[in-house]
Amino acid sequence: MSLIFTPLGIRGIVGRGLDAHISMLIANIFGRRLGKGSLAVVGRDTRPSGEAIERAVISGLLSAGVNVLNIGIAPTPTIEWATAKYDANGGIVISGSHNPPEWNALKLLGKEGILLHPDEMELLRSEFEKGRFESVPWNEMGREEQYDAIGDYLEDLLRFVDIERVREYKLKVCLDVNGGAGAYVTPYLLNELGVKTLTINSAPGIFVRELEPRPDTLEDLSKIVVATGSDLGFAHDTDADRLTIVTERGEVMPEDITLALVVDYILERKGGGKLVVNAASSRIFDHIARRRGAEIHRTPVGEAYVTHKMKEIGATVGGEGSCGGVILPDFHLGRDGPLAAALILELIANRGKSLSDIIDDFPKYHTIRKNIPMKKEWKDLEEKLIRIGERRGMRLDFLDGIGLISEDLWALVRLSKTEHKIRVLVEGRDEEEAERLLDEISEALT
């Protein structure tokens, strides 16, 4: 598999698309863009390939005359936060996120710890294709400093949480970090909040389940939550920028619910504001925006699109419901799983209700996701999808792929940015109607 450039970063299977040589070249090109004497933060998740890629990335930056603050194994949100907190000129996150263990990726950050804009990624891709590695003279090489930023990150995060209120409520949580970088942060965060915590799958680098925390991969966590009488369960992906929740009944919630809980809570506290979500996020966010008197803005799928829009309009809160990624710009402009966990615990403590009861206050949507192999030209498929929308009297939206929208039913069909697949999302108030639309779309795409 070749190297894949996406708005989220540069990824590939290690040894087949991504390797130390390529990583060093990319870091060198990025370092030259930052400039001699600049500072870059580097951190990684717990994948077996991480250490080799880390050394290559640091070598590439040093050779470009860039100084490196290496914070080692840390969640992606910690690395993003550190880039802004320590006034670095940029950063590199080494993490394949929710991809399988054989994958890894480089996520490139700008000055405020924000993922590079997709336009900037295109410029970097052009430089990479030229294949030029350029080193500064021996006496202008950068220097590396190692620093454990997790304590600073936790201290800063806790400023956004009512610690005493959560402690008083005496919650019990089952946490599944699945061998990822979240093991270095979230258990300690919960301890500071006085939460009785049972952590499972906590050995770093040992991945017991699939890395993406989806409802179909969290059966063990669901059973343990019920068996231990926990108030809820939390699950991270490998770099802990995502958070999936399990209710006290053992129900694994769709990814959108994580973001919905936090967005609703923040907008309630702020008395409205501006909300940014991606095109694949549930229509539950339109309901929340109306209820809280907030503006809602949508972007193409990808954290980079969301964060740059949030910065542009001065958003109050946002994220990607399609992956349970919460972004609170008052803290930093990146998806943050540990922060989401802390805010959900505060929400439960303040409402004095079970997680299930809080979720029951939201309107019910039936969401279906399906991936279909790409076998035909996208232009031909577009025409078929447009005809489906016109036949059903649905509004068409071309923000990212093709959206088919009516009052109680909508669908999004788009090309995957990381795989040769078409991603289909259908959501509706009526489950049978959503299934029928999915069947109609699937037939058109095969």
UniProtKB/TrEMBL annotation:
Belongs to the phosphohexose mutase family. This is Phosphoglucosamine mutase. The keyword Secreted does not apply. Transmembrane segments: none annotated. Keywords: Isomerase, Magnesium, Metal-binding, Phosphoprotein. Coiled coil: none annotated. GO terms for molecular function: magnesium ion binding; phosphoglucosamine mutase activity. Residues 5-133, 152-250, 256-365 form the Alpha-D-phosphohexomutase alpha/beta/alpha domain. The gene is glmM. It comes from Candidatus Korarchaeum cryptofilum. One of its GO terms (biological process) is carbohydrate metabolic process. Its cofactor is Mg(2+). It comes from the Archaea. Residues 391-443 form the Alpha-D-phosphohexomutase C-terminal domain. Its EC number is 5.4.2.10.
